[in-house]
Amino acid sequence: MFPLHRNDLTCPYCYQRFRVKEILFRCSGLAGRRKRCSTSVDHVLGEQMGEFQPKPPPFAADGRRQEAVHPECGAVTHHRLCPRCHSMLPVQYVEIDNRLIALVGAKESGKTVYMTVLLHELANSVGERFGASLLGADDPTRTRFEDDYEKQLYERHQLFGATKSAVATAGGRRPLVFNLAVGRPKSRAREVTRTTLSFFDTAGEDMRTDHGVDQNVRYLSSADAIILLLDPLQLSGARPLADADALLPVEGGATDGPTAVLSRIIELLRASGAAPAQRKIGKPLAVAFTKMDALAGALPEGNPLARPPSVRPVFDDADGLAVHRYMQALLRDWAGHNLETSLANNFERYRFFGLSALGESPRLDDEGDGMQRVSSPHGWRVEDPLLWLLAEFGVIGKDGRR
User: Fold this and answer.
1) Burial letters 155-178, b for 16+ CB under 10 A, else e
2) What is the rounded CA–CA span in Å between residue 261 and residue 252?
3) pLDDT of 280
């Protein structure tokens, strides 16, 4: 847990670090004692985040306080801004625990689908299990997640097109930022643990070249943890085992296959000073193999992935370790020892997961437009990587009993 009086923060939108006293404020736009401020384009916000809507002016004040008075108009404001990109920080961002989680993977590994289903489950069944609530931290997050992600998958039953590279997106892409509150059932005071979760859906192309990594994936070095999604159908050993009706992705090559993506992540973290050359990286890494439903026919009955999830409000670590060892054995059969050895030589903490965000293989649209559709998402074990990370952070409890 971060101490409440910490001085250094990381912006959940631009992933740049700053000191608390550097925090800016934005005028509320209401009439103050002297006048009402006019609005104009905030060019820093536009250049950094691609937002060019006119807004009231930003100004400097004591960022350690929750409110400030704008000297120009005399109006009181509670809108605190990141001093680097001018995004409005979530309420109580300085006072609560914050975790920045990077979501990365190779092209066609299903990152956008996974993120959508994960957040949907956190707001519904998983949230009910943990007494947790998940709320968008800003209007763009709330609007984008409902309109661009949730409705498309759960109402229109359409999969997403390829995520657009940040190189080709003016101002980059804005992360989805959520406030997660987890109740503590045994606490007499009904304590609630609050944290901010920031998800940045990076394109596979952004992990393919040095330019993409250096310019558009800097958030990896600021993230507290990483969820790495790998598509087993891109591994030569697993591909022949896929069910007959599975849609096979383009086989991963030398620049965008699972091993190549892992290598670039390690290079970036090492270059950013995450750990000296002779030491392992301390950030926990959840390595999740997606689309395991397509391999269900090749897996024996009673394997750990087929077990029903726990209903208790803790992370079942014994079950998690069983899944880790099972996926470890499968990975050796699929790709040999190199990928796992690279993980063991570079990360202090990593854990394997197997999951399916959709629960079934998508099908091509009958209209011939190339659109992939799914009847209705009924994923399994989607939440496991995030629950493990939250348990590592102490946000939720962990139970290692068998």
Assistant:
1) eeeebbeebebbeeeeebbbbbbb
2) 10
3) 94
Angle (CA) 241 243 248, round 5°: 85
Average pLDDT value for residue range 62-89:
94
Report strand pairing: 132-136 vs 68-69.
Answer: unpaired
Q: What is the DSSP letter of 337?
A: S
In the chain, what are the domain boundaries?
8-81, 97-399
pTM (predicted TM-score): 0.87
> What is the distance, to the nearest Å, from the Cα of residue 83 to the centroid of all Cα atoms in its chain?
23
Q: In angstroms, what CA-CA distances link 359 with 8, 118, 172, 221, 295?
A: 41, 13, 32, 32, 11
> Over 50: is that where the pLDDT of 221 sits?
yes
> Quick one: fold of 97-399?
Rossmann fold (3.40.50)
Using alpha carbons, list the distances in angstroms from residue 342 to 28, 227, 312: 51, 16, 34
**Dist CA 248 CA 245 (whole Å):** 9
Per the CB < 8 A criterion, the answer to whether 10 and 102 are in contact is no
For helices 258-271 and 338-346, the axis angle rounded to 10 degrees is 20
Q: What is the pLDDT of residues 140-150, one digit of tens each?
A: 899 999 998 99
